[in-house]
Amino acid sequence: MPELPEVEALAAYLRERAVGRRVDRIEVSAISALKTYDPPPSAAAGREVTDAGRHGKFLDVVLDGELHLVVHLARAGWLHYRDAFSSGVPLRPGKGPIALRVRLDDGSGFDLTEAGTQKKLAAYLVTDPAQVPGVARLGPDAATVDLATFAERMRGRRGQLKGVLTDQQVLAGVGNAYSDEILHAARLSPFVISDRLTDDQVAALHTATREVLGGAVERSVGQRAAELKGEKRSGLRVHARTGLPCPVCGDTVREVSFADSSLQYCPTCQTGGKPLADRRLSRLVR
């Protein structure tokens, strides 16, 4: 799933490539991906792309300062920029992985695609990003939040730390991968209860959040959209590295699996050397 650093990099890429171009048309292939109907996609035609930014993990393409194409790429979505499309034939609804295409006046543009069968990519054409329900509910941005606000948000929602850190209403921008990286850098168990954090633990978590996300943004911005997934994987220390040695202490990175996700951690760095119970294995040995 694209998280804050990747969405920031995609916004920077669009600012470099698309700003100053005018929209020729927006084509919708996956009807379920477009969550708004007023204004219609045709309202974007002829408007200049004036900016691109983000709200948490939402990408915001600004058209003439009046319309916003706001996109949440969900778990399997991505943006593919095309210098030129191979055909001028409009997209056929329901065909292939392309959910939405934005054609620009110089022949370039970008596709929003989604792999897999769970179609959750969402696009909104609005006059104000706050009209998007997910944007309106976002907590403070994880990349810029100050320590006092961070402490208040973490302790204000009781739960296991991994879940609280990825709750977009608590803090915007952190997902499954970077939460593993942040918790590893802060040397905290993913199952610590959030409202029991000490002042030192909160400070360490805040520092880790800023440093992990800041480092990922620095590595990502300037990369081509097609290279961002590989860049993300290359910078990870524990996430998706089950069975490999921890780069800090050398212990084996472990995993806890859930119904539709998993987390990775280092026992030595994060849990006092004690492996956490894997729910999947626990069910098998009963």
Architecture overview:
Helix content is 29%, strand content 20%. By secondary structure, the protein is of the alpha+beta class. The protein folds into two domains: 4-136, N-terminal domain of MutM-like DNA repair proteins; 147-284, Orthogonal Bundle (Helicase, Ruva Protein, domain 3). The strands form three sheets. Strands 1-6-7-5 form a four-stranded antiparallel β-sheet, with no helix packed on it. A four-stranded antiparallel β-sheet has the order 2-3-4-8, with helices on one face. The chain has a two-stranded antiparallel sheet with strand order 9-10. Helix 1 runs parallel beside helix 6 and helix 5 (176-186) crosses helix 6.
Give short descriptive properties of this protein.
286 residues, alpha+beta, N-terminal domain of MutM-like DNA repair proteins, Helicase, Ruva Protein, domain 3, 2 domains, 4-stranded antiparallel sheet, 29% helix, elongated, disordered C terminus, Znf_DNA_glyclase/AP_lyase, glycosidase, zinc
How far do the termini sit from each other? 33 Å
Give the helices and strands as they follow along the chain: HEEEEEEEEHHHHHHEEHH
Shape: elongated
Largest beta sheet: strand ordering: 1-6-7-5
Number of helices: 9
Radius of gyration: 20 Å
